[in-house]
Amino acid sequence: MKKTNKLKLFIGIFYIILVSIFIIFIFSKFSYEEIASYKFIQLNREYLVNLRTSNLFLLGLLFILLTIFWVFLLGFGSPIGLLAGFVFGKFLGTFLAVLGCTLGATFLYIFAGYFFKESIKENFLNKFYNLEQKFKKNELGFFIFYRFIGAIPFSISNLIPLLFNVKIKNFFFGTFIGIFPSLFIIVNIGSGLEKIIRENEEAPKILELLLSSEIYTPIIYFFILIILAFLAKKFFYNRF
After folding, report:
1. Nearest one of 202, 187, 184, 186 to 41, comparing CA atoms
2. Angle of helix 90-115 versus helix 78-88 axis, rounded to 10
């Protein structure tokens, strides 16, 4: 237990140090006014587009590695989806975001299972004991459903399956399939933002953004997905 607590402390300190280094690096290169400016976003959009054109494979590989690292450090998927859509477009962006998040979540699952399994059981088993029989009945099927519903924060949902000893292969494929719909919608929003920035020299107003089909269409899909997830949970939950 003492070793586990020391490891937790080390990971926490390591995470804070990494975040701090990243923030210091960003603000040493650019001021807040630059980062927040529309022109800064435009220029970096052009840089990323040129980089994608000249070396798509390398950029895609780097994106996947950064996504794995982000998810492993308990990051969530929405920023990844927006960035993927902004840089890579709808379809390639979705594939890269889903693959990166799935790999990161799987590595976190394996790592946490090795070091923190008992601690996780102590803190979460009483809250989620009702899911045990559902996982045992149809592990992969319920895990896809569990990911699709998405009612639990992504970082926590990566750890809860440890309570029920979900197989790694089921965790991987269940995550890949289950998070695909929601990430596809988020990636579409990122892709829409990139198109709007590309076509507008001046920053559009919020209302103009919301009335753009590139933005309101995936938002509508997002609300439809929420409704479907709610209905699935309400009417099909007991079937598993």
Report:
1. 202
2. 150
